[in-house]
Specification:
The protein is an alpha/beta fold. The strands form two sheets. It has a two-stranded parallel sheet. Strands 3-4 form a two-stranded parallel sheet. Strand 3, helix 3 and strand 4 form a beta-alpha-beta unit.
């Protein structure tokens, strides 16, 4: 909501999460914050995550220690952000 307050409305945050409980909690918080359509929780196991979509940035927060094959994840992140994207850990 801080981005919206600053006039930055052309964004979409995809929040990848394995736990269905946390997904439901996130959906409720997103609705309460008025961010439906801007923040999208997606249930997925990052150990098998792949994307064809391009991302401007990917943020990994408190998750990497759960990944079995970090090299594969990092390769998929590299493909997703391309040469100009940012990966923040």
């Amino acid at each position: 909501s801080e981005l919206c307050r600053r006039g930055l409305n052309n964004f979409r945050l995809e929040c990848l999460e394995l736990s269905p409980i946390l997904i439901e909690r996130a959906k409720q918080n997103i609705l309460e914050a008025g961010l439906a359509g801007k923040v999208v929780p997606i249930q997925i196991d990052l150990n098998s995550w792949e994307t064809e979509s391009g991302y401007t940035a990917i943020i990994a927060n408190h998750v990497l220690h759960h990944i079995v094959d970090l090299e594969l994840l990092f390769s998929n992140i590299s493909k997703a952000i391309g040469r100009t994207g940012i990966f923040l850990t």
